């Protein structure tokens, strides 16, 4: 039997936290005299009521959260947080339908950054702040999940990142809590640094804070329909590029950096792979744009380095419409969308370490084919990859492809054109934001999609954010049995 | 060091055989009065025969022993060299193909892909049309042969699951393999003859019937008309072609067993079941979509959906409609069906059904293990447990397929093609289907207009896809050539 009490208890805590955070946009709206503050205050009250009721109703002196409860809790946490996050949006002055509000909130909490809101530039500050806050909370929530929960659930090869102390079980919780807290502090410090830098580069204080939160969360919600392109400022683009890249790196390594072990950050194979791929993609597209597209070299470098960082880190800010760059660029963009960032960061996608594991496994297989009797073990970061990790990474890859195919067929059946379908699914599952094509491209918006497509995309965002297995496992009858 | 002698010897035999086959279109051209093309074929045959016999004589050895590495080189080289020499008559014929297009066309032929760079098939000399069909027909049988005998031994992408059970140990495998190949070959010829007879009975000329029968059973897809099967406007022709395309993409070994008195294995085979089930589901859903969403009358929707979906999923590539105008869902569906492909041990390509079964079983077991970390779950295929090495090899294949596809599509993009052409062209080439999607290479289109670089890339993609990736890609691993 699954114990629901501890699950509901933790959800209660989550909702209470969300309610407290909802007060911030209420204050922001009240400060400028916007009537939306009432909506935020009411939503906060309602969320608080539900949250506290859940806490009180399910309180117990001692809780056992086992594997199944952990799966259920993780999936439910994101679903419920998106629902609560949608409340103020649905009742605000923007007049979003419930589908739109839920899509927007899911896009926020999964740090995707796809938006259905048109007219951000004139939207009340409360809503803008709330969207940024959702992304910030979603970002840190995901890091904590990736560091503390997924390795223990052995999801998609994440057991590779199990911390060394995992066998001494009674000490796990305090250590994990400690590490999560430290990572949280680092996260906030980076946001503060980013906000200060953006403010110094000419943004207003409010814009700087919103963008800093959306940047470090690799979310990509902006305060303007034109995204970062609105500011026409090279310094802002450079600052954002740096902090997007930082947001997509494993935060545990920043912790090591603080502890005086910077070597691990630079020797980490994921970080190297990530930066190497980034450099390769930038180089290829700069050359393509400069030699083939007839753009000046500085301009190409500026647009490409920002655009590639934005997509690979799965942030989704836009400055240039990379769709005008031709078929080659579109294919590159599609790939780096699904590749994504490093694990243990706020970035989404398949993630660098999985590709590295897959590559190492494929290499070992080739060796084995050549010498059927030789002994070849795939290695990751100098250590042999356990059989179980290799197969769950490959399983993840397959499930990713299968989910991708199923969702894009679904979007096609909802009436979307081919490019919108496949790029929409890619961008949702990798939690990036913009897709390709005339509708949802970097200059576009998700508002005009049919409701069914929005629900499918919301599902895609959730699946992608929770590394597929965490959601799919709930669909297996064995999960609920015995 | 790899010894090349036996490889050269066997390639020589292959070329000599190819030269003999080249005489058939020469003869047909003579009979129909295309004397110039007949001489092109004859000269090409002479040249090929000369090279082939020279290779045989130069590299003759007492016992051509082939080890694992030599088999890889032989398989890859066999297809590439065959394509190169098969391109000769195409290049020098009246069609005026440039060398790139001729090689592309020949490679499409021997890999039974229906990608053509020739426009004006309807007025083309019969020799050329027959030659293209012959290439596909022999290429298709070559694929069955290596899928039954060589690939399982080489342990390519999980194919070891189909290793022939041999009671008498290693030395009895070869005679048994020869025996099996003879049986399968007879079935192949028999099915081709049956298909040709049926097509002829519906009103095709004898020549058209033979050509289409050869390209149908080999799931190749070359036609005698630019409009492909649509040219005949006949429901009966389409039904026959559907039937034989499906027969061409089922495991041929099972036919042999069925004839030997165990037909139940054919009916109860997991691969066959899932292949037919998937094709039927796709046809039903697409028919519903065309009928419900596009307002197409039901019989017409069914006819078009059934033919084109079966054509794509078997990797044949005949067309009767421009299905890339059926909307986003159709494009996505056709793209995915393309890469799924038929059954292993047949003439069709792609990822193949058994790999999906294996991966699905493995993923199912993984998820159950997540739920009960201490439980014992074993993935099964055809009621037998799947060894870990097979599961891993299959998943590795899947990754390698995705990676090769990605690189190929990227390369096409760098040649300046549009997104849909890149994505569908790469899929179509690797899965040996033929037509892609979109205005350039779609079902109505043609590969003639592509830049030379793209044709070379696609030719390489066809070769890699036909030989189950590993067989070709392993040659690019430095360790292969060492020690």
Concise overview:
The complex is a heterodimer of chains A (482) and B (483). Chain A is 66% helix and 1% strand.
List keywords for this structure.
heterodimer, A: about 475 residues, mainly alpha, two-stranded antiparallel ribbon, 19 helices, about 0% strand, B: about 475 residues, two-stranded antiparallel sheet, 20 helices, 2 strands, globular
Explain what this protein looks like in three dimensions:
The complex is a heterodimer of chains A (482) and B (483). Chain A has 482 residues and is mostly helical. Chain A contains 19 helices and 2 strands. In chain A, strands 1-2 form a two-stranded antiparallel sheet. Chain A is globular. Chain B starts with a helix and ends with a helix. Chain B is globular. Chain B has helices at residues 5-32, 35-58, 68-92, 99-110, 126-149, 151-154, 173-201, 206-217, 235-248, 252-259, 264-268, 270-292, 298-313, 328-340, 353-371, 388-414, 419-430, 452-466, 470-473, 478-481; strands at residues 380-381, 384-385. In chain B, a hairpin with a 2-residue loop joins strand 1 and strand 2 (384-385). In chain B, strands 1-2 form a two-stranded antiparallel ribbon. Helices cover 66% and strands 1% of the residues of chain B. The longest helix of chain B is centred in the middle third of the chain and has 29 residues, at 173-201. Chain B contains 20 helices and 2 strands. By secondary structure, chain B is mainly α. The chains are: A mainly alpha (482), B mainly alpha (483). Chains A and B meet through helix 3, helix 13, helix 14, helix 15 and helix 16 of A and helix 14, helix 15, helix 16 and helix 17 of B.
